[in-house]
Design a protein that fits this description.
Blueprint (H helix, E strand, L loop, with lengths): L5 H15 L16 E11 L5 E14 H14 L15 E13 L12 E7 L5 E6 L3 H5 L3 H11 L8 H5 L2 E13 H13 L1
Antiparallel strand pairs: 1-2, 1-3, 3-6, 4-5, 4-6
Helix pairs in contact: 1-2
């Protein structure tokens, strides 16, 4: 089983800061954590003063990629190229939290309902009203964070994937579903700074 660790998020912050201001933040050194291959997602959230998190970007891959290359690539892709949001700016970084999810245990579901809330992420394949094949995914924590039932999560995921017609039971049960699990770690910007300060003091 993979072991996701805070250093993964720290490297994402290093990569993003270096990209946004390479004069102040030099290119990060090669990380020391293992360069094993995993499917992964990098998520950026805006953290309010009350601690509430608002999504600012989330992109990843279901293909196994070496962690050094994969984290650096998706740290920037999720921060700058998530089409749902404007690119993250340097001034925003102190308000960000980063999370890294390493994906494991992929299994084909027997039906669209063959998964457990809070345990499984879901990847769905379906055809839209024009017969075009589409896909979409939610990580394991999303449905619980939103307070969704399984049906609400599936309906939201269909919309995310571009389905614009009426969602019926026939549409839901026509979904091809793959379930998976993940290991996740997260760091706020302040926690990132604290780790950098502690490392510099050693």
């Amino acid at each position: 089983m993979p072991v996701v660790r805070p250093e993964h998020c720290e490297y994402c912050f290093d990569t993003l800061l270096s990209h946004l201001d390479p004069v102040v933040y030099p290119k990060p050194a090669a990380p020391t954590f293992p360069d094993d291959e995993y499917p992964l997602f990098v998520t950026w959230n805006h953290q309010s003063r009350s601690g509430h998190l608002r999504l600012r970007g989330c992109i990843g891959t279901f293909s196994g990629v070496p962690l050094h290359e994969g984290l650096a690539s998706y740290a920037l892709t999720s921060a700058l190229k998530d089409r749902r949001f404007s690119p993250i700016r340097l001034a925003e970084v102190p308000k960000l939290a980063c999370s890294v999810s390493l994906l494991t245990n992929f299994e084909e579901g027997k039906s669209a309902m063959d998964w457990e809330l809070g345990t499984h992420g879901i990847w769905i394949e379906f055809h839209d009203t024009y017969g075009v094949k589409r896909t979409a995914t939610y990580l394991p924590e999303i449905a619980l964070e939103q307070g969704w039932s399984k049906i609400e999560a599936l309906d939201s995921l269909l919309r995310k994937g571009g389905y614009q017609g009426k969602i019926t039971d026939a549409v839901r049960y026509g979904i091809h579903l793959t379930r998976y699990q993940s290991q996740k770690t997260a760091l706020t910007y302040q926690e990132y700074l604290d780790r950098k300060t502690a490392a510099a003091a050693v």
